[in-house]
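#help-structures
NK: newbie question, is this the right format to request a structure? protein is Type I secretion outer membrane protein, TolC family
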Amino acid sequence: MLKKTTTGFLFLLILYQAQAQSQLKELLEISTANYPELQAKRLETEAAQKLVQYERSDFLPSLDGSYQMVYSTNNNITGMFLPGQVMPISGPPVLENSFDMVFGSAAALLLNWSPFTFGKRESKIQSAKFGQELARHQEVLAILEHQVRFTEAYLNYWAAESIAEAARKNRDRYESNLSLSKNLVDNGLRPGVDSAQFRSLFVRSKIEYLNAQKTAESMLARVRELLGEDQKPITLDTSLKRQVPIQTEEPMDSHPLLERSKVQTLLANAQKTELNRSLLPDFNVWATTFARGSSILFEGGFNNPTDGLAFSKYNYGVGFQVAVPILQFSRTSKLVQRQNSLISAAEAYEMQIERSLEKDRTVAKVTLEKALEAATLAPEYVQAAEYSYQALQARYDAGLINLNELVQGQADLAKAEAESIKVMAEMWKALLYYAAVSGDMEIFLAQLER
């Protein structure tokens, strides 16, 4: 029975540790799914996809239907047309002005189709595709930037909460030493000033603990804001307490920032092609069928004003039209020159980003190496300070040293604990920086699962 209980307890302990170790990764997934800015980026990518579909649908013909009914004077044999899709019919005017009002009606179907566009349609589709690709890369970059921002905020919270816990331990040590000094003073083994000094230090340690708690709460509020979720409990990830293995050289794939810049250059070139092709002719096929009703008689006058509500004439027509923008060459050439400048600017930005990323990768690699070395020394620092403090406390209890030496030893231990937490946080931040400039958060996340 005891064996089963022990096995069950160990299983629950392992399960709890696995859950605790994945806390940061789980929060990162929630933040990526819920943060409003990233939701907006996903919707922008979806909108760019719809634009590509819209440009492709330009091959389909348009068909417009219309119907109109008018009540007007009969000074023209055709009566009056409202602006719309009906092809107008001209005719002679009546002999004299008449202000008698009659009804007229018309209905029409108008088809317009451009079966080929001399490359105009293809250039618009290509621009839309690069726009979609740009939106996708902007979404990927926004996700990376947010994940880095959230992880850094969480590391700051982890460090602040850990420092608050170290401040609590230091407060408890002062409280214990205050109780011990009172006993020594009561027994005449120590002067009364020792208790007074310990009380002063104990009060100061409580204030430092309160300040550390305040800092941790402010860091937690930042994490909560970036999480995009108010109900999820936020706890400390226990895997952040251990050291990261020495990193091997990672293959540097193209960074999302550089990929976005490359697509911006391609988009600028596609837009230039679109401008150049806008000077090519437009070829349209037109077809129409329409019906006309009018109260006006051929010889003039009318019988019944409402006769025009019924259709009396039916027509159809088909043809094609070629239009050349003759006077647009001069204006469009200025836009092409402007686009050439934008292309050159995009290429220059691309070169600058590439150089900047190369520098950042070099700095990130060195920073990570030094942070890892410092992290290996941190436990020794704390261990040595704790050993020294325990030895000083024993000597103080035995009356071999004065209070100042013990206080200094305790201050050194508190400093070592705080510095060790900062060193561990800087190690994880250095790894985060290395992952950010590599454009791959998996470099960071993989270390949480080891």
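mod (FA): yep, format's fine, and the tokens are attached above. The chain has nine helices and four strands.
NK: thank you!
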